Amino acid sequence: MSERSGLSRGDRNRNEWLARLRELVPAGNAIVGIDLADVKQAIVVTDHDSRVLARRRLLCRAWQLGEVLDWALAKAKAAGFASVTVACEPTGHRWRVLDQLAAERGLSLVCVQPLLVWRAREAEDLTWDKSDPKDAVIIARLAAQLCCYEPERASAQFARLRHLGARRNQLITDTTAGVQQLRDLLECVWPAVLDAAGAPFRSASWCAGLAVVLDRCDGDLTRVRRMGAKRFLAAVRAQLPRWGATRPRLRIVTAVFDALTDTTGVATHRPGALERAAMVMRDWHINRARLVDTEALMVAVLDELGLTELVCSIPGLSAVGAAAILAQTGDLNRFGSPRAVVKHAGLCPRDNASGHHQGKTTISGRGRPELRLAAWRAVWAAMLNNSVLKGRFTHLTTRQDNKLAAQQARAACAAALLRWLHVIVTQRVPWNPAIAAGEAEAAPQTRAA
């Protein structure tokens, strides 16, 4: 805490944030609260005391709200206001449409969290009464109280990275689902093949062998068995390039071929389950290829931004892992400090203290869950190859006082990874292990590391 002003760092940051919001919602502006929907829009124009100056309800798409903004501006000027500030909930893509329409007219736009609207609705009259016109008034009132935020305006490159990141998350989900479906089907009707390799779904030889079986068996494994071991091996060799390999592991291929004689499994379901497994196998292979292509595009965007070498200076962090994180954060320059990124991810500690009571401290869990997931995935690989993260994890899990569980320590390491990324991206400096480990003093502009 500053001895001169008596203000903490949090006080100063909050004051700066409120000052920025007051610039967007000045006292001389009326507030246009809009409850966005697909075709039915509710619009109110209010002053800062939530007195309604004008109201409209009309059927139109979000792209047709430009005339409504012109109408609201005219109503506000007629009431003595200089301009208007537009406020809405971040509903799907529609708020982006409204943001562009407002920017074309030189109007400011702020967003109000739906959770705040939900709680304010109950506090309005202690009932669960809900309607779009009432929600529009609540949105305007919360904006007037500065219970709002300035939304992210991404550049074309970061917007593209965001969309590619969303595509990657979807493909990871579909790929993982394909593995689980295959495992469930094979455990039911042909469990012996799962023992042909220690990590079957990570083995190119096993995947190629299974693909040959499922493509040719037509629900009857004896048909593939009649091919003979040599023809089966030749078919697997031809299939291997599709799975990213050139030379088969003979032990695994032989084990898959020998499993063809195993009759363990639910016999009545075997023909249908193997047919379904063949379909799932094809979908899984397609999704794997799509995932590789999407990750290559994400790295290409990272190259365009000139960040690949910087982010890869962190040992253990791949370009794909860094791109997945930046796809969720957007431009890190919009965050005032590394701590703000950690808070945005919901990885910051949440204190639970009152008087002499000190409760259990956990992570906040707020912010962007996709960012938290991306950091969590990246830290597992980074901890295996980064001596600083290894040392931090060991210290947090073995210290005498306040020893953390393994999952808690990994969350702390994920937060550290986000702080490092903020520094090296915003300051355009490579990662320094001595500074990251606290063994060297950082330069003034990189002290946040």
Helical content, roughly? Answer: 55-70%
Q: Number of folding domains?
A: 3
Biggest sheet details: 5 strands, mixed
Number of strands: 9
Q: What overall form do the CA principal axes indicate? A: globular
- What number is the mean pLDDT? 91
Tell me the quaternary state. Answer: single chain
**For the CA atoms, what is the radius of gyration?**
28 Å
End-to-end Cα distance, whole Å, is 20 Å
Order of helices and strands: HEEEHEHEHHHHHHHHHHHEEEEHHHH
Give the uncertain stretches in residue-range form. Answer: none
The class by helix and strand makeup works out as alpha/beta
Q: Determine the number of helices (DSSP H or I, runs of at least 4 residues).
A: 18
Percent strand: 5-15%
Strand order of the largest sheet: 3-2-1-4-5
Descriptive notes:
The protein is an alpha/beta fold and 449 residues long. It folds into three domains: 25-144, YqgF/RNase H-like domain (Nucleotidyltransferase, domain 5, 2-Layer Sandwich), CATH 3.30.420; 160-295; 306-349 and 362-446, no CATH class. It is 56% helix and 9% strand. It is built from 18 helices and nine strands. The mean pLDDT is 91.
In short:
The protein has helices at 9-24, 66-78, 94-104, 114-125, 132-144, 156-189, 204-217, 221-225, 229-239, 250-258, 270-304, 308-311, 319-329, 338-345, 369-385, 387-398, 406-427, 433-436, and strands at residues 29-35, 40-46, 52-59, 83-88, 108-111, 349-350, 353-354, 357-358, 362-363. By secondary structure, the protein is an alpha/beta fold.
